[in-house]
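Project channel, design review

CF: Before we commit to the Sporosarcina newyorkensis constructs, I'd like one complete example in the thread so the newer folks can see what an input/output pair looks like. Taking DUF1648 domain-containing protein.
RD: sounds good, go ahead.
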Amino acid sequence: METEKPKLNIPKPGFAKAFDVLTVALFAACLVYLLLHWNRLPDQIPAHFGANGEVDRWGSKFELFILPAIAIFLWIGLWVLEKYPHLYNYINLRPDNVEIQYRYGMVFMNVTKNMSTLLMVFIMWQLTDIALERTESLNMPIFIGILAVLFISIGYYFYRMMKL
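CF: and here is what came back for DUF1648 domain-containing protein:
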């Protein structure tokens, strides 16, 4: 489209709203979990993991607040982008496919936003459990599974948008 991209009012799909609620609820639950166990956490907690899931750096327990800060920053930033699909760069935007492209773009941002946040929730939960000696290492199958869902969904939406 050579002219300015139209601004359309695309309603958010119900599953995207439900995904937002689920993600925010899990994020809040993880923060509550962290705060409930705060006084029992040792001064040094896992801060980094090797490819095998084993802790390879320890840091201050206050570093646990970096992950929620990153999650909040990502969630808000992608939430704003989700609301304005006309601002995205599209490869093959045409008058006959603009609405579906915007819809795919919104869903893409929603999935990316929520999966990124869920990844942070998982890591916060795992760091807390390792510090409390409830587990010994990062659960790599779940970690890789979350990353796989994130990257597969990115690839899927990119493919769908290209196909249009």
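RD: helpful, thanks. The CA atoms of residues 119 and 146 lie 6 Å apart.
CF: Strands lie at 44-49, 55-60.
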